[in-house]
């Protein structure tokens, strides 16, 4: 972390005058470049295996690993791949391979069966734009504050393969097997990640604060905020991935009052500093008797509030990563039906968020997560018509 990013002005933050990327209120190989690489209708969870975690059906209107399972799995592994060309004729075969894995019983690769394993497939902007530059997801992310230092090999990708499950030992073999169904693919970056215990999407992030509190919950909220409504990608969603190094030591060296002023929420239960319970809306107008905002002007919860950007809610499924003493932080994962939701929020955070002084972006990508599929409707069928 640079000196200016790790500085902390207690008075300016507490008084709302001070300066993580969007939604941070929230080991193994990291988001690493691979040597030699080129640049309403969700199916319900199926019955759990005896003694194991509840399985998630791989078929339906939407892919698993987004809304389902309700409580995200504890472990994840993400591969970003580059393609020789932008053709997607291989998608049906990849979908069949996924169904063979997740609909089957015990196999040598999955000796206990698939359990709660999910595989989520996305396509990058280059591939989508080649099909139709007007489609959602054909636009790449702009640069945000600090992004200029991210190496090119840690940005973007043409294909995303993301596997999540309770058993971390099967994730790499599964993705290696599925990658063989993507002809000509070469690895661009990968990231192993993990989550602490939590209920639903709420979990403590590496800073010790609860994340995932204000997200879509109902079918109506998902239709409005997350799922692409129409066209060949209807039922899909746009995923943004941000690998964020966190200066946890500096952040936690400050008092609890100072930390809570930066986030705008209580560390104990995630309730907003304006009062109420964790799921209550933040009262941005609430003030002390002296006229100071209870949620400071530059607190993260205020800076990220959709009322300032005119954007919609995003679904966050953040994970932590630990790739060495000086490389730990948050793998920020969010889903929305429009890329603008993330972009407008992040641009505001770049301008006013007090939390940004503890954050260094080290990876960035966006992918369209394809609609759900089954044996009769191929993966990516809308793009192949």
Task: Describe the structure concisely for a colleague.
With 385 residues, the chain is an alpha+beta fold. The chain is built from 11 helices and 12 strands.
What's the Cα radius of gyration? 20 Å
Please provide the ordered H/E string of secondary-structure elements: HHEEHEHEHEEEHEHHHEEEHEH
Structural domain count = 1
> Average pLDDT across residues?
88
Which key features would you list for this structure?
single chain, 385 residues, alpha+beta, ten-stranded antiparallel sheet, two-stranded antiparallel ribbon, 21% helix
Give an overview in words:
With 385 residues, this protein is α+β, with helices and mostly antiparallel strands. The protein has one domain. It contains eleven helices and twelve strands. Residues 1-23, 25-29 and 35-49 have low confidence and may be disordered.
Write the layout of secondary structure elements.
Blueprint: H1 3-6, H2 10-14, E1 32-33, E2 75-82, H3 91-102, E3 118-123, H4 125-131, E4 159-165, H5 171-179, E5 186-194, E6 203-204, E7 210-211, H6 219-225, E8 237-246, H7 248-252, H8 256-263, H9 300-303, E9 315-316, E10 319-322, E11 328-336, H10 339-352, E12 359-369, H11 381-384
Antiparallel strand pairs: 1-5, 2-4, 2-5, 3-4, 3-12, 6-7, 8-11, 8-12, 9-11, 10-11
